[in-house]
Design goal:
Elements: H1 28-33, E1 41-49, H2 58-70, E2 79-82, H3 87-97, H4 110-113, H5 120-135, E3 139-146, E4 150-157
Parallel strand pairs: 2-3
Antiparallel strand pairs: 1-4, 3-4
Helix pairs in contact: 2-3
């Protein structure tokens, strides 16, 4: 239920949906042994916690830490998939990170596609990988806010 005087409405918040997603992770050697393509490699991961009252901004800090771990700048990243719990949350993260919105959620985010709570992270990663393949992009970033003040980020890379 939304506060009738609030700024978060059904029109700018992600709807909670049913959904499922799956990822097969394995070593490159195992993929080759099974004659499976290697779509991307995980390069770095970060998880950060902030005051739960500030729940939506933790992806900013997780993204910065993840990029630092891999040695990339945000400008090095070709595509970004970011969870958008609410429009205000997504816009705040984008403003704080100063990312190029033309590279973020290029096929729509959770407000457009829905937010299958337990599968959102996997859905975001799968969307990112497939869009990178489609565009022949090399570097990608997935980032999410999670209830309780948590944020996570993951960088992936495809071969040239």
């Amino acid at each position: 239920s939304f506060d009738s005087l609030g700024s978060v409405t059904a029109g700018n918040a992600s709807s909670i949906n049913d959904g499922a997603a799956a990822v097969m992770m394995m070593s490159e050697a195992k993929a080759r042994a099974l004659n499976l393509p290697v779509l991307a490699r995980i390069r770095a991961f970060a998880s950060v916690g902030v005051d739960p009252a500030l729940m939506g901004i933790a992806p900013v800090y997780a993204t910065r830490r993840c990029l630092e771990r891999v040695g990339w700048q945000l400008a090095d990243v070709d595509l970004i998939e970011a969870n958008e719990a609410f429009a205000a949350q997504a816009l705040s993260v984008g403003k704080m990170l100063e990312w190029d919105e033309r590279r973020v959620n290029v096929n729509g985010g959770a407000i457009a596609l829905g937010h299958p709570i337990g599968a959102s992270g996997c859905r975001i990663l799968v969307s990112l990988v497939h869009e990178m393949v489609k565009r022949n992009a090399r570097k990608g970033l997935a980032t999410l806010c999670i209830g309780g003040g948590q944020g996570v980020a993951l960088t992936i890379e495809r071969d040239e």
